[in-house]
């Protein structure tokens, strides 16, 4: 009774099963055997590295975020690069953790003009129209096994990211990134404010797709999400912490290019045969534990594999 | 920049907005103004109450679970009642917490025949066919605003629960409960084992719908999910803890009928006008923060409101 999924190690070992009785590969097994040529290195310039204060047991807590590539959210990610270079987040904190929703961080005094940290003066101000992007014609779009979306005409993977697509009359497809688990967005005040990128949140629950096109996504957590998702939930409205003592301090946020000791990361190329196989297996589990493949998967149930490069 | 959703208290206060400029009610506001007649009391006999060991700061940690009603999963919930009466879980532990997936608890020695706790001898053994249920003809089924499901012909609410439906040729609709955030299921070993109910898990991430009809759901956490979702993630395969010290001890699991001091709980009747209004607002956010209503919602984004009775 102890497990409801076999350990990956057990499935990867040759074991005693004859080849002809061996079940189909599971999604993690497909990822494990994907050739090196199916992985894409993530540029350090596209990484944002956030160090939280160590735990009481002195365990370090590093959260690695991959920023969205062009053409998505470039105004916000440009601001985020400036904010990191200005050391804006050093000494700020995780201010809100709402269960099944988001963990949010930034300047705890942002609402108090007398105490708020100054923002760099050259931040871009984005229009709400920038929540949606027109993909250049010819942009590769891969459905994987995602189908039957409730929130968009179609969902697909674009350059390694989960994206929703609507037809637009001219100039290609209207597209926007999707609020899947682990995605990072830019908090904002009431419309028409669109946020600068100084206040960020990560999704730590069921995909809040109603936020799509209502708030800017800027990236995703590729390592260390557990340092945010396992934080104590705030007890104030919307999961804000009620006292400063409850917050988790942020010691530093740096771009990947500033950190000499950062490992290299890579993602499974979403146009590769391995990804197609992986996505199909996520939608149709045929490995030994499963008795009834689902026949489909929503796009947030096909997380793009990301790992430290070998 | 501090918030990306207004505090509920602010929206509920009369404020200074004129009536004609006031935005539409948010889902929590609709729930707050629902009349008492739209709420259904949950019988204490349908509650399973799990007390985890207090935190280092002596904070109590109680998790309240509502068991699935007939006709769903009755073999497993019957076993769970017997296991609670036998004090089976007292002194067991949370053994696994896998990020964006599940927290799982039970006898840490279940796999070791020499050390495993004895199970009650009169537990039922369920067939895999019991993962799906034929709804009696005439069972009220409410779609709410759920549409466009990837995993089933249709999703709907049945007596306060998220349920997937397929047409069956005779005898009504084939139905099964859905693995939404907070749902509780019965761990099992490889098929044809279906689990006894002695090993349980709660969903703490994006709905793992591929588990639907592959494993039995038995209920949902209605209070205290944060005591499971904010636990440290296990570092072994599948999020199992690697040492006994990392586990969180379970001090007691009792049926609601055994606890004199348990508050009363109620859920918003899914056939009520208030629920229809709430579900529509979840699918089409028209409250002040939102600029673009989604036009739909997947069923796991319409969590059934549950609260302590007033």
Automatic annotation (TrEMBL), chains A, B:
Signal is among the record's keywords: yes
Domain PPIase cyclophilin-type: 78-234
GO molecular function, one term: peptidyl-prolyl cis-trans isomerase activity
Coiled coil: none
Domain of life: Bacteria
Keyword annotations: Isomerase, Signal
Protein name (Swiss-Prot/TrEMBL): Peptidyl-prolyl cis-trans isomerase
Annotated organism of origin: Novosphingobium arvoryzae
Organism lineage string: Bacteria, Pseudomonadati, Pseudomonadota, Alphaproteobacteria, Sphingomonadales
């Amino acid at each position: 009774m102890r497990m409801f999924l076999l350990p990956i190690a057990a499935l990867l070992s040759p074991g005693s099963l004859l080849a002809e009785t061996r079940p189909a590969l599971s999604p993690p097994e497909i990822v494990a055997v994907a050739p090196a040529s199916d992985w894409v290195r993530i540029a350090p310039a596209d990484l944002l590295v956030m160090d939280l204060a160590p735990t009481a047991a002195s365990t370090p807590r590093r959260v690695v975020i991959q920023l969205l590539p062009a053409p998505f959210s470039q105004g916000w990610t440009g601001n985020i690069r400036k904010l990191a270079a200005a050391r804006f987040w050093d000494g700020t904190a995780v201010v809100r953790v709402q269960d099944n929703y988001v963990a949010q961080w930034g300047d705890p005094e942002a609402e108090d003009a007398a105490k708020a940290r100054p923002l760099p003066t050259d931040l871009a101000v984005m229009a709400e129209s920038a929540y949606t992007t027109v993909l250049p014609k010819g942009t590769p779009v891969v459905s994987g096994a995602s189908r039957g979306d409730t929130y968009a005409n179609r969902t697909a993977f674009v350059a390694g990211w989960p994206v929703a697509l609507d037809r637009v009359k001219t100039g290609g497809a209207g597209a926007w990134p999707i609020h899947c688990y682990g995605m990072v967005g830019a908090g904002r005040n009431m419309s028409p404010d669109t946020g600068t990128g100084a206040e960020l949140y990560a999704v730590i629950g069921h995909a809040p797709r109603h936020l799509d096109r209502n708030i800017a996504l800027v990236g995703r957590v590729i390592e260390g999400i557990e340092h945010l998702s396992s934080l104590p939930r705030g007890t104030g409205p919307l999961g804000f912490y009620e006292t400063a003592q409850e917050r988790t301090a942020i010691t530093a946020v740096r771009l990947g290019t500033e950190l000499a000791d950062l490992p290299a990361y890579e993602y499974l190329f979403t146009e590769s045969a391995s990804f197609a196989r992986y996505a199909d297996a996520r939608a149709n589990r045929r490995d030994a534990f499963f008795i009834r493949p689902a026949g489909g998967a929503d796009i947030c149930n096909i997380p793009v594999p990301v790992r430290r490069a070998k």
